[in-house]
């Protein structure tokens, strides 16, 4: 059965861009260690109720940044020269970052699994940047991500709810 959290997000997200920004504005006033500790707790609680294999929004919608270390690791696993891997799969975007050339990601399989899960880019491991005590540092990402990632949508609202208690 599809996760109720994903269903709620699908129904509500078209109307919530401004709402997401308002939440971020309020949370910015509370930046700091305490907020990051709470965000880690909420992140874990929300991801217990969301199965990424039902979603794949990030792998479908955002080309991840791929670092040189990522290229070396993944190309080695494929038995390719890093330069050949780079030519085949990567490009430099308008911000000067090296990212996957195509979306959906070429390594996303039809069942939403990642073909290179164990060696995936660091950016994929870190997405959606709401835990590891990094929530405050990534504040500018959370509003746009809430429209791509159902977990972020719920994490923002649950953090506010717990702060208001
Ligand atoms: S490398 Fe894997 S986790 Fe990263 S975007 Fe592609 S399919 Fe998703
Ligand atoms: S968008 Fe969020 S919930 Fe969806 S697969 Fe990515 S991390 Fe998981």
Describe the structure.
This protein starts with a helix and ends with a helix. The relative contact order is 0.22. With 165 residues, the chain is mainly alpha-helical. Strands 1-2 form a two-stranded antiparallel sheet. It folds into 2 domains: 93 residues, no CATH class; 57 residues, no CATH class. One iron/sulfur cluster binds next to helix 4 and helix 9.
How are the strands of the largest sheet arranged? 1-2
Q: Segments where pLDDT lies below 50 for 5+ residues?
A: none
Shape: globular
* End-to-end separation: 31 Å
Give the amount of beta strand, in percent: under 5%
Question: What's the number of domains?
Answer: 2
Number of DSSP helical runs: 9
Strand count, sense and barrel status of the largest sheet are: 2 strands, antiparallel
User: What value does the Rg take, in angstroms?
Assistant: 17 Å
pLDDT averaged residue by residue: 95
Say which molecules are bound, naming each kind only once: iron/sulfur cluster
What percentage of residues falls in helices of 4 or more residues?
40-55%
């Amino acid at each position: 059965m599809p996760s109720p959290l994903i269903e709620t997000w699908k129904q509500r997200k078209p109307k919530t861009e401004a709402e997401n920004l308002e939440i971020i504005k309020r949370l910015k006033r509370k930046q700091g260690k305490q907020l990051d500790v709470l965000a880690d707790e909420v992140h874990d609680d929300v991801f217990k109720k969301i199965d990424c294999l039902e979603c794949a929004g990030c792998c479908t919608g955002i080309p991840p940044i791929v670092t040189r270390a990522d290229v070396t690791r993944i190309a080695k696993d494929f038995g390719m020269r890093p330069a050949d891997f780079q030519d085949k799969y990567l490009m430099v975007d308008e911000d000067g970052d090296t990212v996957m050339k195509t979306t959906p990601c070429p390594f996303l399989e039809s069942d939403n699994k990642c073909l290179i899960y164990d060696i995936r880019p660091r950016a994929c491991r870190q997405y959606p940047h709401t835990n590891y005590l990094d929530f405050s540092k990534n504040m500018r990402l959370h509003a746009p991500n809430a429209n791509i990632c159902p977990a972020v949508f719920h994490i923002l609202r649950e953090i506010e709810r717990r702060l208001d208690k």
